[in-house]
Amino acid sequence: DSDRTLTILRPCVIFGEGNRGNVYNLIRQVQSGRFVMVGQGGNRKSIAYVGNIAAFLARCATTATRVQVFNYADQPTFSTEELITTIRAALGRSAAIPWRLPYPVGLAAGLVCDKLSRLMGKQLPVSAVRVRKFCADTAIDTTRLEASGFIRPFSLAQGIERTITHEGWCSSYG
Fold it and tell me: Using CA atoms in the order 161, 56, 153, 95, what is the torsion angle rounded to 10 degrees?
């Protein structure tokens, strides 16, 4: 049918109000004061605020293009360091990250926790897989999305602030 359209959206990690995924867990750890930065923090992380994805999907629903395929991530792509300092700022904290471990030390701690986890038959919050994922580059190419002319209604910092405010944590969001 020539009147039909198809939009395929391949999003990266999505966060926002009420979501209990990876970004929520990271914000919660930073908020609690238990967060330890592993590695130098230069690795790039693509993330997307749910309000921006909803706006993009609404725009796609009114586009007459027959078939569209997009990788979705909000821009700019933050380094892990930038993501943590943005979260800290939204929580009203200094940008300085107080606890840091070099990657080899963090990975060794993850491997020890893996062995303890197997011995105890209980999953621990630290593992080698989690350390590797945290320190991995997960940036995705959004060239086609950027070429579409879509303007995101929220910056990543605003999305983080809105999420923090929704959770009732301290925030500088007004």
Answer: 30
Instruction: List 8's β-bridge partners, or say none.
Output: 69
In order of 87, 88, 96, the CA distances from 158 in angstroms are: 10, 13, 20
Distance from C-alpha of 65 to C-alpha of 121, rounded to nearest angstrom: 52
Cα distances from 35 to residues 97, 120, 148, in angstroms, run 9, 24, 38
Tell me the pTM: 0.90
Q: How confident is the model at residue 72 (pLDDT cuts 50, 70, 90)?
A: very high
Q: How many CB atoms lie within 10 A of CB 113?
A: 18
Per-residue pLDDT averaged across 110-119, rounded?
97
Read off the DSSP letter of residue 138. B
- For residue 82, is it left (φ>0), alpha (ψ between -120 and 50) or beta? alpha
Q: How far apart are CA 3 and CA 13, in angstroms?
A: 32
